[in-house]
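3.2 Worked example (two chains)
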Amino acid sequence: MPATTPPLRVTVLVGSTREGRFAPVVTKWLTGHLDQRDDLRADVVDLAETPLPTVFPAFGQQPPPGTEERLALVSPRLAQADAFVLVTPEYNHSFPASLKNAIDWHNEEWHGKPVGFVSYGGLSGGLRAVEQLRVVMAELNAMTIRNTVSLHDAWSRFDADGNCTDPAADTAAKALLDQLAWWGHALRDAKSVRGYVA
């Protein structure tokens, strides 16, 4: 990457808000990989720390009081992102309602940007959540990355200090971020030339 090329701003969106969640362990590991790169800069948006409203206003109506203040903690950060990584578990063969809620509050923030996925869970490793997220993000004009990180039986892949003990997971993370960087730069460059048309 040329020295004059600014790094991509990657928003890591943490989808689980459940008490006792494993998401912080996975997110810390992922951001460790991001911090090792000069071409990517991470911004973690944790929906447990920045909860969004769950009641949407009627079309054409103003949102309820307090809505804009809560959105202000999240929306500008999504808008400024060049790329995203969604960190998600699998709930009932799908992804958490908190993540869908955050996605639905936004539209243009996703347009023309690459989205990668890091999923975790039991035997499925969250892959069914990712497959459904791909359909949702396509509707929002986002480009999903083929490579994913899927942590099967995730709790067994980290030690008591939160360090990943599975070299294959580290290899998968690198492959994901390499693809995310390629698409992120390609799409950012394209939008700088002709903008994005939804």
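3.2.1 Second chain
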Amino acid sequence: MAAELTAHHRRLAQQKREAITSAATELFLNRGYDGTSLARIAEAAGVSKSTLFKQFPTKAALFEAIVTESWQRDAGDTAARPQAGDLRSGLTVIGHRYADLIGQPRMAGLFRIVIAELPRFPELGRMQFQLGKLPYFASVQHYLESEHEAGNADVPDAESAANQFLGMIANYVLWPRMLLTGWNPAASDIHNAVEEAVQTMLARYTPDPPA
């Protein structure tokens, strides 16, 4: 019984946390980071102020959680991990995972908040880069480095290659959404964009066959 109650309490806490981060993201977008108080977020999330302050004692801590959770949305999904030893398969998994991640409305909203508030709150940009984008790019870089070391790819500059690959996908999936309110490409078009990016990477980084 005690274990069931503990699990129940954890589920409730997680539900409240998700309600808080969702409400905060929406309010930051509509009212701005500076124009949104923790009290207003608690009201919008349907939780008490004490509940919110217990999880997020400051607005910066709340924004930090939004960034981290947005970029780690599928971190525990083993199906989203690249397969070692097969460059095409690994890049395909990474590419579709990345397209799904940055295609979420929450991610576009996060970028909009940072861009809008950057002149007054440069720390938001640092959080987005250091806690979200940089670790994600680093994970792709490490994958490419491991494939290079194993002889499955010829990637002498894995950092540059990771930026090339993810940049090709973001240029179609994310950045038009930041400027065009009606941008909503079909799933098949996103699939094709990822596959084209994979093909480009294979053409550049597949090792030459042994003589």
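3.3 Remarks
The CA atoms of residues 83 and 89 lie 6 Å apart.
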